Amino acid sequence: MKILDIGEIAAQSGVPPSTLRYYEEQGLIAPIGRKGLRRQYGPQTLLRLTLISMGKAAGFSLPEIAQMLGADGRPDLPRDELHARADDLGRQIRRLQLLQETLRHVADCPAPSHLDCPSFQKLMRQAERTAAWGGKHATR
């Protein structure tokens, strides 16, 4: 087993040492020892950091991620929550795609006024139906 110090873990993962120490305080990772003042980690820490990063990107909080990772290092993934989060991400992706399409249309539309453009009006109706912009009136 290759032992990595905090600097090597930081370099390989892109996670700053201060964040690694914070993750340790939160119970997300654990060193296997020290060499002088430097924390030492096992190679499985890189995998845990990848899982933490994925969880954060999916919108899970650090306490939720800690619970999923489990104290014993064996993930305990709540499949129903993961499905719900994937559904939320799918809705967000669709809203962003509509926004992208609308912005591209506005940028390229030859009409003198976008409000007179039938294509733009259609995009606006779609946005209204789906509450696409995620504002305070958006519903789920």
From TrEMBL:
Pfam families hit by this protein: MerR_1 (PF13411)
Q: Where is the HTH merR-type domain?
A: 1-71
Keyword DNA-binding listed: yes
GO MF annotations in UniProt: DNA binding; DNA-binding transcription factor activity
Q: Which Gene3D superfamilies match?
A: 1.10.1660.10
Q: PROSITE patterns per the record?
A: HTH_MERR_2
SUPFAM superfamilies in the record: Putative DNA-binding domain (SSF46955)
The coiled-coil regions, if any, are none
Q: Identify the domain of life.
A: Bacteria
Q: Which InterPro entries match?
A: DNA-bd_dom_put_sf, MerR-type_HTH_dom, MerR_fam
Record's CDD domains? HTH_MerR-like_sg6 (cd04781)
Q: Which UniProt keywords apply?
A: DNA-binding
This chain belongs to the protein called: Helix-turn-helix domain-containing protein
Organism this protein belongs to: Ruegeria pomeroyi
